[in-house]
Amino acid sequence: MNDAKSQIELLRTQIRQHNHRYYVLDDPSVPDAEYDRLMRALQALEAQHPELLTPDSPTQRVGSQPSSAFAEVQHRIPMLSLANGFNEGDLQAFNRRVQERLETDSVIEYVGEPKLDGLAISLLYERGQLQLAATRGDGLRGEDVTANIRTIGSIPLRLMGHDYPQLLEVRGEVYMPKAGFERLNRQQLEAGEKTFANPRNAAAGSLRQLDPRITASRPLAMYSYGIGDMEGDLNASTYAEIMHKLGQWGIRISPEMALLKGADECMDYFTEIGQKRESLGYDIDGVVFKVNRFDYQDKLGFVSRAPRWAIAQKFPAQEEMTVLLDIDVQVGRTGAITPVARLEPVQVAGVTVTNATLHNEDEIRRKDIRIGDTVIVRRAGDVIPQIVGVIKDRRPQQARLFEMPAHCPECGSAVVRIEGEAVSRCSGGLFCPAQRKQALFHFASRTAMNIEGLGKKLIDQLVEKELVHSPADLYQLSLEQVTALPRMGRKSAENLLHELEQSRTTSLSAFLYALGIREVGEATARNLAEHFGTLEALMAADEESLLSVEDVGPIVSGHIRSFFAEAHNREVIQKLREAGIHWPAVVQRAPQNLSLAGKSFVLTGTLSSMPRTEAKKQLQALGAKVSGSVSKKTDFVVVGENPGSKADKASELGLSLLSEADLLTLLQ
Ligand code: I6G
To answer: How confident is the model over 414-448, as pLDDT tens digits?
Structure first.
């Protein structure tokens, strides 16, 4: 019995340590299989000795049954809100107010942290055990979501160490990482369930589930931003010290937290976090600055339920409302017809947005978007603006449903939708000028034939004047023809012909990519070139040999075969080669001789010893495959400084993470 007790305690300690490394430090210490073994051993022992079961056991995260409602919780100390700042003036004014109230001219020390776009939460620990978790609610009363919060891996059921106060209320923000959000929405779509408009809604919806088993299946996480009530000794005189202690007790705190002197350093930090925003792996809507010293915080006090010692400096909103004026369609390179929303112009994150992609017909139906609706537009970083939802209350009576046109608006060919595919396509192929223009634009792009100066406008003119029908025609253009184009000087025409001349020397992989075969991106083109060595061998390849190429499955092999089976495509290739397009012989590698053959890598974050492109080249030279996205097939993720969401995803999938030092050892 005593033996079982100590064995159970040992297993619990080990599992808690692994949880801490995995969820809190983002630094897994054992493979998933080992973790699962420990968990199963603990479950088995607890089943044999139910009298030894305790609520803080790592096996007890999903213990409770669905409830019919959440109980109300009165907060021991109100959960306040924060004053907002929207520009540098607001931040400078905040700093001046702080100095004036403190009657000092000295530089004030602040702590800066990203402000997560999630839900505020209060966690009550008594003698180190998690007793109660409540949402913010109206700040005075929230909802008891303890059963759900217990399912979140990054929230400890029991604090680490011994020097924590008897009673400690930890406050923080529960959020859903962007990678987890994308995955959840994909799963929801596949299951025919409703998708979430953004990670915040997904986090809120997941936390307010009456069945904790559903919450347990959702990728939620938490960062703490301070404490509420407390009984016992804390021995801290600054916010930074408290946050450090919380970290030691196993609570997750932001790795971006920084000590800053005065408003100018705060402003620099705000700019820095703004630049990092897209790569953080979770949504943030600003930066919070807090006066670090507690004696100063006490002296500053509160005004209308917000502390005078803190400010939330906001980024420009990424979501705004506007009216959907109409839906047009655009024809892409492969004939895909994409509905595009025409919007009443609206400023989103500092840019005027007039169009947004609507992806496909199903997406419009699923979101129940109608022409005339008031919609929510989201623009994040470089991402094309999206319509995330409709405000149904504002739907006018005359709002209309969208209908996919039966004929291509560019060439009049029939629009077809293959069963099982979400995309509708123009059946006009390269007879459709829109497809031709897009194909030429792709052919000329930097990572394809790299024909500088051959942009969209020039391609439009060449196609409309019927000078160019296929990429091969580009190489037949004369100086007179190009000079005669509107707004084209002799010098520019000469430059274009020079660029075309230069592009005649290329590589097999760039040429394959330039052909624009469906779903053959740069990496697949490279794999095909290395595998087959010559264009002739690839053109003659049967399905079996295509399937043996890395990254090529039945769909891609089907696209490749039907591309080369098309007489018109073979003719264009022939003409291109006659026009002098050539490449050096491809050195086919013997993968079995290479130390990293068959291993797949993903690089994330900044490397200090070399650019990522160089690391990629060196890994590929050793036979490794370097991919841009993390999946179950990834063997190693190399994590540099300030890694992006790929590192989060890799941790979630339990993949092996390598540091830059590990990478250098491998390359040597
Ligand atoms: O809602 C919040 C987000 C982040 C906060 C907060 C915070 O600090 C990083 N801090 C306080 C003090 C409050 N709300 C009230």
So the answer is: 999 988 888 999 988 878 999 999 999 999 999 99
Residue 351 domain boundaries? 319-416
Q: Are residues 391 and 329 in the same domain?
A: yes
Instruction: Please spell the DSSP secondary structure of 153-195, one letter per residue.
Output: TTS-SB-SSS-S-SEEEEEEEEE--HHHHHHHHHHHHHTTPPP
**Biggest alpha carbon–alpha carbon distance for the chain:** 96
Sequence-ordered list of residues with C-beta below 8 angstroms from that of 100, at least 6 positions apart, any chain: none
Band (pLDDT 50/70/90 cuts) for residue 656 is confident
Task: Among 297, 314, 331, give the residue marking a domain's end.
Answer: 314
Ligand 1 pocket: which of 288, 289, 303 to mutate (most atoms within 8 A of CB): 288
Say whether pLDDT at 473 is over 90.
yes
Contact of 288 with 225, CB cutoff 8 Å = yes
Decide: 207 and 155 in contact? Cβ < 8 Å.
no
User: Of 183, 96, 140, which Cα lies nearest the Cα of 652?
Assistant: 183
| Rounded distance from Cα 389 to ligand 1 centre (Å) | 28
User: What pLDDT is recorded for position 615?
Assistant: 82
Which residues are known to be catalytic? 115
- The whole-angstrom separation of Cα 577 and Cα 239 is 69
Q: What's the whole-number mean pLDDT along residues 244-259?
A: 96
Are the beta carbons of 138 and 281 closer than 8 angstroms?
A: no
Query: How does residue 661 score in pLDDT terms, banded at 50, 70 and 90?
Result: confident
Ligand 1 atom nearest the C-alpha of 120 is: 1
Q: How far is the CA of 240 from the centre of ligand 1 (A)?
A: 14
Q: How far is it, in rounded angstroms, from Cα 585 to Cα 622?
A: 20
Ligand 1, residues 225, 253, 298, 308: which to mutate, most atoms within 8 A of Cβ? 225
* 421 occurs within a structural domain: no
Domain count, the chain: 6
Please tell me the pTM assigned to this model.
0.64
Name the token pair of 660. Answer: 């830059």
Residues 293 and 392 in one domain: no
| Binding pocket residue ranges, ligand 1, CB within 6 Å | 80, 82, 113, 115, 120, 173, 225-226, 288, 307, 310
Structure tokens of 417? 């939708």
Higher pLDDT, 546 or 318: 546
- CA 284, 181, 658 angle in degrees (round to 5)? 85
Ligand 1 atom having least distance to the Cα of 81: 15
Residue nearest to atom 7 of ligand 1 (CA): 225
| CATH code of the domain in which 305 resides | 3.30.470.30
Ligand 1 center from residue 128 Cα (angstroms): 23
- What are the counts of helices (DSSP H) followed by strands (DSSP E) for the chain? 25, 24
Residue 584 located in a structural domain: no
pLDDT tens track for 159-197: 999 899 999 999 999 999 999 999 999 898 888 888 888
Give residue 414's identity as a one-letter amino acid code.
A
How far is the centre of ligand 1, averaged over its atoms, from the C-alpha of 115 (Å)?
7
Q: What is the DSSP string of 371-437?
A: BT-EEEEE--TTSPPEEEEE-GGG--TT-B-----SB-TTT-PBEE--TT-S-EEETTGGGSHHHHH
485: amino acid identity, one letter? L
Length of the chain, please? 668
Report how far ligand 1's centroid is from the alpha carbon of 509 (Å). 51
